[in-house]
Amino acid sequence: MAKDPVCGMSVDERTAKFTTAYGGKTWYFCSSACKTTFEKNPVRYAR
After folding, report:
1. Inter-CA distances, 35 with 4, 5, 10, 43, Å
2. Contact 7/30 with Cβ under 8 angstroms?
3. Which H or E element spans position 40?
4. How many CA atoms are closer than 13 Å to the CA of 21, on its beta-carbon side?
5. Per the confidence metrics, is the pTM higher than 0.90?
6. What is the DSSP secondary-structure string of 6-33?
7. Which of 15, 25, 31, 44 is deepest in the core (most CB within 10 A)?
């Protein structure tokens, strides 16, 4: 299970509908809202 970097929710990588690539890594999100928030300021969430 991956952790949504915005809200901290656990996300199953195999079934995640919302993903993005940043910094050579795939990031997984619980919702489109969390994905959008991350994409607006990835430096803040990509630790």
Report:
1. 9, 9, 14, 13
2. yes
3. helix 32-40
4. 1
5. yes
6. TT--EE-TTT-SEEEEETTEEEEESSHH
7. 31
Q: Which two tokens stand for residue 13?
A: 């990588």
Beta bridge partners of 19: 28
Exposure string for 15-33, b = 16+ CB within 10 A, e = fewer = ebebeeeeeeeebbbbeee
Tens digits of residue pLDDT in 21-46: 999 999 999 999 999 999 999 999 99
16 with 31: CB under 8 angstroms?
no
Please give the average per-residue pLDDT across 2-25, as a whole number. 98
Q: Which two tokens stand for residue 14?
A: 């195999």
47 pLDDT higher than 90: no
